[in-house]
Design a protein that fits this description.
By secondary structure, the protein is an alpha/beta fold. 37% of the residues lie in helices and 20% in strands. It folds into 3 domains: 192 residues, Methylglyoxal synthase-like domain (Rossmann fold); 116 residues, 3-Layer(aba) Sandwich (Cytidine Deaminase, domain 2), CATH 3.40.140.20; 121 residues, 3-Layer(aba) Sandwich (Cytidine Deaminase, domain 2), CATH 3.40.140.20. Bound molecules: the ligand NC(=O)c1ncn([C@@H]2O[C@H](COP(=O)(O)O)[C@@H](O)[C@H]2O)c1NC=O. Keywords: Hydrolase, Multifunctional enzyme, Purine biosynthesis, Transferase.
Length: 509
């Protein structure tokens, strides 16, 4: 037998062309599982069936095809080790030079509407990954191709190296082999996990999606991984125009998405460095955008804008009046697309499902990672307590809910000053709460008069309440839970404020 190539592929694209070159140009013999052999035979190629070689038929409806020592011995043997060569000879095993495998389409199968569990299970490839792993492990002696895209570069490599690929080429193929099997198993594990209610915090980290130009800074490399098993969230978004998305764009877009997902009325959030600089909710999307922009026009320059309703011409015209990095909405009509196309660098995305949030959040620490539930708690206003003698009106409750929802998405310590469902001042990420209060009130200025203030955590002292009242704030919403709550409530009563305690904290780091 000449050099042996084992071909066992679900996706038969490019198979015949590859096999012809292997035989004609490089003198390979071919060995294949049933379906693959049939395709090759139909193209007039001579091929040995795995079952004829091993003397063992495919069984269990294809669950066992290539899982045989004669196959795996041939893949795993080290051609430079005498003991391995002797073992092969003793058991009539021929070494295999090339393994070409692509796997059952598990992800495409589970993405099909109405797919049954049985169908999903039968599409978990077992023999294919076993061969990919074996060949990748033995890359010093075997080349492994797991993707149709590798066929041409492989043939080119053979042509340039007298029919033998370089070790570096084989190593790269092995890397791709293990990348493929780990991604495949991640998809299976995540799918099974989704079917289970008892595995809350076990998660595989995801499937590689694409390499990004760089990370948070140009010297940091970065890549995008998909954590769902199919196109959910941002991997289901369509970029209609503009420059390539960066790491920071994606981080900001996600932060913006979380804010607008809080609202059903037309809502717009403008983000900078993962914090909102302007959020507006209104009866029309145009008015919501104008409110969000007017909240802090200086910071809005170069911002990331998320809108929770489809963009039409009126909003598109406003959007193009300033420099923005990215715009995302659940839709964008043709007239709006036309208008925005004048700003050719602006990244415009359509994200059909901007509501679904991940169930968990992951943070990497040295030597491991932490997983927590996402802050997806349903806001239950019936559990809010009015702590002050002065009670809120219905209108004030609407305003307080707006400020509270935005505050949830501002980095702690977070303070939001708002009115007319528009942010007016946002205090972000200060190491003491009163520092954030000061920033938010200063930014709001005169606009704080008659306004509302939300705090993501409790007030440890009454100073924030005094400052709020002095700036003209009429009502405060905060979690409560401090040992000195009574001090804050007493001052709120003295200064004729409304204060609501939500009983829920929304730290964000
Ligand atoms: N069970 C096995 O021994 C086995 N060996 C190879 N396969 C897969 O069967 C497919 C090729 O089958 P066929 O040549 O019969 O079309 C490939 O996707 C390959 O990954 C197997 N199928 C599933 O596990």
């Amino acid at each position: 037998m000449a050099r042996l190539a084992l071909l066992s592929v679900y996706n038969k694209t490019g198979l015949v062309e590859l096999a012809k070159s292997l035989v004609v140009e490089f003198g390979f013999d071919l060995i294949s599982s049933e379906g693959t052999a049939k395709t090759l035979e139909n193209a007039g190629l001579k091929v040995l069936k795995v079952s004829d070689y091993t003397g063992f038929p495919e069984i269990l409806g294809g669950r066992v095809k290539t899982l045989h020592p004669q196959i795996h011995g041939g893949i795993l043997a080290r051609s430079n080790m005498e003991e391995d060569i002797t073992d092969l000879a003793n058991h009539q095993i021929h070494p295999i030079d090339l393994v070409v495998v692509n796997l059952y389409p598990f992800e495409q199968t589970i993405a099909k509407p109405g797919v049954t569990m049985a169908e999903a299970i039968e599409n978990i490839d077992i023999g294919g990954p076993a061969m990919l792993r074996a060949a990748s492990k033995n890359y010093a002696h075997v080349t492994v191709l797991c993707d149709v895209e590798q066929y041409k570069p492989y043939l080119e490599e053979l042509r340039q190296n007298n029919g033998h690929p370089s070790l570096e080429f084989q190593r790269q193929c092995a890397f791709k082999g293990f990348l493929q099997t780990s991604a495949y198993d991640s998809a299976v594990a995540n799918f099974l996990r989704q079917q289970s209610t008892i595995l809350p915090h076990w998660k595989t980290m995801g499937v590689y999606l694409k390499t990004l130009r760089y990370g948070e800074n140009p010297h940091q490399s970065a890549a995008w991984y998909q954590s769902g098993t199919y196109s959910t969230g941002w991997s289901g978004a369509t970029q209609l125009q503009g420059k390539e998305l960066s790491y920071n764009n994606l981080v900001d877009l996600e932060a913006a998405r979380c804010i607008i997902a809080e609202f059903t009325d037309p809502a717009v959030a403008i983000l900078k460095h993962t914090n909102p600089c302007g959020v507006g909710v209104s009866n029309t999307l145009l008015s919501a955008y104008c409110k969000a922009f007017a909240a802090d026009p200086i910071s809005a320059f170069g911002g990331i804008v998320a809108l929770n309703h489809p963009i039409k011409a009126d909003v598109a015209t406003e959007l193009t009046k300033t420099f923005l990095e990215c715009v995302v909405a659940p839709g964008c009509d043709d007239a709006a697309k036309e208008i925005i196309s004048n700003k050719s660098k602006l990244r415009l995305l359509v994200l059909p499902d901007f509501i679904s949030s991940p169930k968990e959040k992951v943070k990497i620490i040295a030597g491991g990672f932490l997983v927590q539930d996402n802050d997806n708690i349903v806001m239950d206003t019936s559990k809010w307590q009015v702590a002050t003698e002065k009670k809120p009106t219905d209108e004030q409750l609407v305003e307080l809910l707006f400020a509270w929802k935005v505050c949830k998405h501002v980095k702690s310590n977070a303070i939001v000053v708002a009115n007319n469902r528009t942010t007016l001042g946002i205090g972000v990420g200060q190491m003491n709460r009163v520092g954030s209060v000061k920033i938010a009130l200063e930014q709001a200025g005169e606009r704080a008069q008659g306004g509302y203030l939300a705090s993501d955590g409790f007030f440890p002292f009454d100073d924030s309440v005094r400052m709020s009242a002095a700036a003209g704030i009429k009502a405060i919403i905060q979690p409560g839970g401090s040992l000195r709550d009574k001090d804050s409530i007493k001052v709120a009563n003295e200064l004729n404020l409304v204060m609501i305690l939500t009983g829920v904290r929304h730290f964000l780091h």
